[in-house]
Amino acid sequence: MEWYPWLNSTYKNIISQHQAGRGHHALLIQALPGMGDSALVWGVSRWLMCSQPAGVKSCGQCHGCQLMTAHNHPDWYSLTAEKGKSSLGVDAIRQVTDKLYHFAQQGGAKVIYIPYAEQLTEAAANALLKTLEEPPADCWFFLCSRQPSALPATLRSRCMTLTLPVPAEQHSLQWLAAQTSQPQDNLLTALRLAGGAPAAALEMFTGNQWEQRSKLCQGLGTSLPDNCLALLPLLNHEDVALRIHWLMALLLDSVKYHQQNLRWITNIDQQPLVARLAEIISLPALHQSLSRWMQCRHHLLETPAVNHELLVTEALLDWEQMFRAG
Fold it and tell me: What is the DSSP string of 75-121?
């Protein structure tokens, strides 16, 4: 698993707590996508499973390290929803927690990793809570969540919350520049679109996200304000919520353009488009547009089995009607 330099300080702090005998039995890690929370948990887990760590590093040679490297350590558990399901049920929690009260198969630590804690059903969260209230000896829980506030308060109260801070923008740009040959404006735009998470910014260039965003930008420039529905094929994809995020970022930049506050715009590479949007959409209409698209995105993310195409079509038609009324 790839390691990221911005994790070093947090990693060392966690290990030093364990070295001092003050390691918390349950860490709830909040991080943006692309911040490397899974890499952090893996690194700490390797240290915990190592029988002869060298300072803050695992030795890499002992049997525990070899099992971790092979990804088949019997005392390391990763719990996620089954394929095709969106929730992590109580049976999966009970199957693991029942094993925790027995001796570790390798005679050392036991680690339970839940990469998407928000997948826990109410029953699963309650079952986990009982174990966290009276944790077995030498047993460590790592829960990761994008939105810890969505978890039951009782569960959060049994964990120590750790938030992974985004690196300084200049440090992230230096790291990105070493990973890809993209121009500086593109790197900065991707980084800001990713909320400052460097690995998520890099993913825009290693996949097809950058290309798809460019097509959306081109479509906005040619379709507004008279033919909003032409944007439907550019928005209605599996990653529709992400594409609406790109659209909202452009609209928000246009608000900043109206206010002559260009220093912190997100879409550095699309400043002519930002100016064009500010020209054809008044400031009140931009605020109204942002509200409408925010509502659409919320429904897409929070409503189970919602018809994506229907929601986006409705939002586009509302947007076109707003332009006509204006």
Answer: TEEE--PPTT-SSB-HHHHHHHHHHHTSPPTTSS-EEEEES-GGGB-
Helix (H) or strand (E) holding 140: strand 139-145
Query: Which residues on adjacent β-strands are paired with residue 90?
Result: none
DSSP strand pairing (76-78 vs 26-30): unpaired
Tokens of 205: 């260039």
In tens, the pLDDT along 204-249 reads 999 899 999 999 999 999 999 889 999 999 999 999 999 999 999 9
Backbone phi and psi for residue 261, each to the nearest 5 degrees, phi listed first: -120, 75
* Distance, CA of 166 to CA of 7 (rounded, Å): 10
41-73, pLDDT tens digit by residue? 999 999 999 999 999 999 999 999 999 999 999
Backbone φ and ψ for 77, nearest 5 degrees, come out as -120, 130
Strands 139-145 and 160-163: unpaired
What is the C-alpha to C-alpha distance for residues 224 and 234, in angstroms, rounded to an integer?
Answer: 14
